[in-house]
Every structure is written in structure tokens, then in C-alpha cells.
Amino acid sequence: MRKILFLILICLVFSTAVADLLYAQIVLDGTMGTAGEIKGPVYDIKAGYGKQAGANLFHSFGQFNVSSGETADFRVSPAIQNIISRVTGGEFSRIDGTLRSTLSGSSEISGANLYLLNPAGVMFGQNARLDIGGSFHVSTADYLRMGKDERFNAVEDVELLSTEPPAAFGFLDSDIASITVEGKGEMTKQEWENNSPGLRVEPGNTLSLIGGDIEIKNGAYYDDVKTGDIAAPEGRINMASVASPGEAVLTDDDVDVSSFQKMGNITLSDNATASVSGNGSGDIFIRTGGFFAYSGSSVEADTAGDENGGRTDIQADTLSLNASSIFSDAEGKGRGGDISIRVSGNALISDSGRIFADATGEGAATGSAGGVSIEAENISLNEGVVSSETYGKSSSGTVTLQAQDSIDISGSGQIFARSTGKKTDTAAGDGGTVLIETRHLSLSEKSRISTDTYKDGIGGNITVTGPGGLAAESVDISSDSRIYAGTKGSGQGGAVLVETDSLSLSGNGKIDSESLSMEPDAGIAGDINIIAKNVSLTDQGIMTANTQGPGTAGSIVIDTDRLVLGSASEISSASTSKDSGGDAGTVTINAADSVSLSHSKITTQAEDAGKGQIDIQTGKELYLFNSEISTSIKKGENDAGNIRLSQDFLILNKSAIVANAYQGKGGNINIKADEAFIRSSDSRVDASSQLGIDG
Q1: What is the largest CA-CA distance in the chain?
Q2: Domain limits of the chain?
Q3: Which of 48, 347, 561, 683 has its CA 20 to 30 A from that of 146?
């Protein structure tokens, strides 16, 4: 038995050693002149092993593998700008050591760009790292297009070598190998300080992964700080996953994949990170079929200095962001970068997934936040967040979501743009705008679309419409969800515009604007404007433009065919402060057909403030059952507001129309009923004043 165990142990040791030897080989294939194996563990890849054409140095390998603790050192002259290497043996490359480029005869790092092509696939292990002065491009392409029409093929061909720089990565069929990057996972303090792993180029350079499916996993981190498994500080990251013939063309401001009929998948998992963060943020271009980010993974583009941030540009067929993030942050004076996501199919942001563009600088660091734009067929936020926020004197950016079919926000999901001023003692920046374009918008389970401003910043507006400038088909807000625009300082609150065929507020669903500051210079609440064929508020559906302090309440305007309020629902532009509150606002309802209230109310009431007005005009009928229309003032010397009602039929059943005052004058109630005014004996119309003159 011991002999058997011993033999098994010997076999395991031998097989591991053989595997290491196989992976550790770097073999020249002879197509550039020199053939044979290069000895490690420091593989000295001399310039003479390849061929030079202008500023390009070409190498061709039968095998290219670098194990942990090993280094592949490409030796070049100062005249070389691009080191272009191919692997022709038909086996994937495993790189778990260091790729380096130095000047011949010295240890000085070269500034040349390094290209590595292997159509059989490339795997980067936990210890893989770059020690080069230029950009790094890895691909499983079949060829590199050089200039306009020349090629460097990734096969064993002896060919005329081009002096032109690489321009595109070419793929000849749909069988395209993958690229995998495996991070180191959780690191010790010593590992973090001594050798930060990952594929990282020097600031200002480019890192490209162009191939079939791309996977970045097991991201490296220490004490919740990530290293960046692929990183190009202040530079550029290109990731393109393709699954059909075509060319991926790198331009100054794009990765053009328009020639591909089918795309592959890019997956980031387990804290994987792609980062261009630095003193001035760089650009990230992602082109793929499916983009999937899970379990704490992130795409990051922070700017910490005076330079503006770049842009994060993602194009995909589908997108799923689960407990992961895509973000930019302006930490210094530079403006934060914009985030643009275009998805031809469905985009899902879930389980605390976040897409945000913030400005968190303080003091003299006042860069504005970038904007966020998401386009898709359908967008779903289930416990997800899309936002732009600023902490200092700068302004937050615009948040735009455009879905050809639907936007569904649930599980306390949020879309917001706000200015908090939490890192400044004086003035705060303005809040950003939220733009929603879709056929169907649904908010449920305590979800929220909002713009907020603190201190003196002006609040951003919220606009909900349909695609192409048309009205949405439906907007449904339920189960404690809301569309909200608020001011908590001296700045004016943002306005809310909803344009849809059908608007439904139910289950304490709300559209509201508020002025919450109790200071004397409190800001004015924003206005609410609803344009809809049918408006329904049921089961405590709420629409308010209120003030809780000295700020004036906003106004509400509803243009509709039919308005229905039921089950303790409310439309209100009220002043709720009990001591010298701001004036109530105005409620204006224009209904081409009818307005119906059941156990509900429309009010511009005030505790102790100036009057608000109510103006309701219907084409046919205004019906109230156990409901109220009120502009009353509960105390003080202010006059009650006026009420004007115009319709063919006015029916009051156990209901009230009141414009009462305390010391001031009662409001005027003007009723025009062209056909009939019918009221039950327990209904009332009252414009009296308790201590003043009746209206």
C-alpha cells in the first residue's frame, strides 16, 4: 500500500513539474530567422531573434509561456516603437510572470508598445504583470492590419513585413479563442506593498484585450482597496469580444466593431477591476455581446487632479450588473468623466449594482460630476442605482435613461441627481437633471426617481416622456415608490414633467416636490406638470407640491381627458408649517372629459400662510363622493384661496368644497355648471371666515 501511495505521489510531482516545464517554454518558430528554445527563468528575447521594419520589431514564437517568478524581456533599440509578437504553435499562452521590455545592453525600460497575438488563446495568471514603458495589446486575432491594407498574419508565414503602425485586429472565422485574466484575490499587506500584481501600463498609455470571450476574475485587493486587475491610469482601456469574422479598428476615440455580425461575452467576477483612474482619468471602451459584472467587480474612471476625466463607453447586446459598479468620480478640480452605455437588448442592474458619476472633491477641489446615459430596449433596476451626485461647490451631471420598451425600477431601486454640499460650509453646486424616455415606466417596492438640492444649489428637473419626443404609453408608481424633486436649502427645487397616455399612482405611490428648509431664505418647491390622457390616483396615491417651512409651495398643473382619485388619495399644493409658513401653491386641472373623487381630496390648504388657488375645468362632469376640495387657512390673518370650478355637471355626494379662513377673508368659490349642480343634503359649499369676512 505504501508503495502505491509513493508511486502516486511521484506521479503527481512529476506531472506538475512537466506541466510547469511545458508552460514555461518560450520557443522561436524560425520564421523570422532564429529557431529554438530560449532559456529562462529570465527569457532574454534579443532584437536579433526577430526582424525590424522601420519602427516595428516583429517576433514569431512556436510557444510562449511565462511561469510565476519568470520574466520575458524583449530587448529593443531606442528606435523601436512597436514590438509585435505572434504565437503560431496552436497552443494557448499561459502568462503568470512578468512581461518586460528593456533597451538592448541596459536595464532601462523601453517605451515601445508591446503586441501579443495568439489565435489559440491567452491566459494571465495571478502573478502576471507588465514592466513596459509603452502600451500593451493582447489579442487572439488571426492577423494585425498594418496601416491601410497590409497584414501581419498570426501563422507560420514568411512575409513582407510592414513599416506601418498596427491599425486593426482581424478575425477570419467564428472560432475565436478567449482571453482570461485571473487576479490574486485577497492579498496580505506585504504582498500589497512589495508587488502589486495585475496588467498595468504606465500612466497615459493604452491596454487592449481584443479576442473571443474575455474573462477577468478573482480581483486583487487588500483591506477593501482594489489594485486594478487591468489598469491604464490616465490612459485608455480597450476591450472587445467578438464571435464572427471582421476587424476591430482602434481609432483615437472609438473601437469600431461594425464589421462583426456577432459579438462574444465579457465577464468580470469576484472583485475584478478595470481602471483608468489617475490625476486625470482616461477612457474605457468596451464592445461586446454580453457584458456581465458580478460580486463586487467594477469599471472605474476617477480623476484626482486638475485634468478632466475621460469617458466610459460601453456597447453591448445585453448587460447585467450584479452587486458591481461602473463609475467615475471627480476628486479634484477636473470635471468627472461621462458614462455612456448603449445596449441593443436588455440592461439589468441588480443586488446593489450601481452606475454613477460623482464629484466628491472638497475645499478648492470643485470639479463637476460627469453625466450618465443608458440606452437599451428594456432597463431593469432591482435594488440597483443610477445616479450623479456632488458633495462640494460643483454641479452634478445629467442622468438619462432611454428604453425603447420599458424601464422597471423595483426593490428600492433609485435613479437620482443631487447636490448635497456635504463637503462645503458655504455654497453648494446645482443638482443635475433626470431624463427618462420609455414606453412603459414602472416604479414599485419603495423605488425612487429624484433630484435633490441642499444649501443654495438649484435643484434639477425630472422629465418623463416616451421615445422620440412622444408621450410614454404608461407610467405606474406603486407600493411606496415616488418621483420626487426637493430642496432642503435656499436653492429652488426642480420641476417634474410627466407626459404619458396613462398615469397611475397607487399603494402610497407619489409624485411630489417639497421645500423642506426651515430657514428664512428657504427655497421654493418645484412645480409639477402632468400631461396624460388618463390619470388615476388610488389606494393613497399622492401628488403634492408642498412646503414645510418659509419656502413657497410649488404649483400642480394636470392636463388630461380623465382624472380619477380614490381610496384616500390626494392632490395637494399646501403649506404645512404651523408658524409663518410659505404660501401654498396653485392646483390647475384641465380635463377634457371628467374628474372623479371618492374618499379623496384636492387641496391648497395652509396652516398659517398665504392662499393657494384651485382651478378645475372639465368637459363633462366633476363628481365628488365623500371627498373634499379645499383652499382653507387654519389660523392667522391670511385670506383663503379661491376655487373655480367649470363643468357641465357638478355632483356632490357627502362632500365639501371649502375656502375657509381664520382671521382673514374667506376665499371666493366660483361654480359654473352648464347642465346641473346636484348635491346631497350632507354636502356643503363653504367660504366662511371664523373671525374675518366671509368669501
Answers
A1: 112
A2: 23-300, 545-694
A3: 48
Q: How far is CA 628 from the centre of its chain?
A: 43
What is the pLDDT, as a whole number, of residue 438? 99
Q: Are 429 and 391 in contact (CB under 8 A)?
A: no
**Residue labelled with grid coordinates 497552443:** 91
CATH superfamily, domain 23-300, is Single-stranded right-handed beta-helix, Pectin lyase-like (2.160.20.10)
Peptide bond into 245 cis (omega under 30): no
The helix/strand/coil state of 129 is strand
Question: Do the strands 166-171 and 143-146 form a parallel or antiparallel pair, or are they unpaired?
Answer: antiparallel
Beta bridge partners of 409: 381, 443
Residue indicated by cell numbers 487572439: 140
Contact 162, 152 (CB under 8 A): yes
Residue 166 falls in which region: left (phi positive, over 0), alpha (psi -120 to 50) or beta: beta
- Give Cα separations from 142 to 60, 278, 288, 430, 451 (angstroms): 14, 34, 18, 51, 50
What is the pLDDT confidence band of residue 693, given thresholds at 50, 70 and 90? low
Cell, residue 112: 515601445
> 387: which strand partners?
356, 416
Residues 363-379 have pLDDT tens digits of 655 778 899 999 999 99
Residue among 302, 301, 405, 388 nearest 347 (CA):
405
User: What is the distance between the alpha carbons of residues 679 and 645, in angstroms, rounded to a whole number?
Assistant: 14
Query: What's the CA gap between 454 and 425, in Å, rounded?
Result: 11
Distance CA 620, CA 651 (A): 11
393: number of Cβ within 10 Å: 26
> pLDDT tens digits, residue range 562-610?
999 999 999 999 877 777 677 889 999 999 999 999 999 999 977 766 6
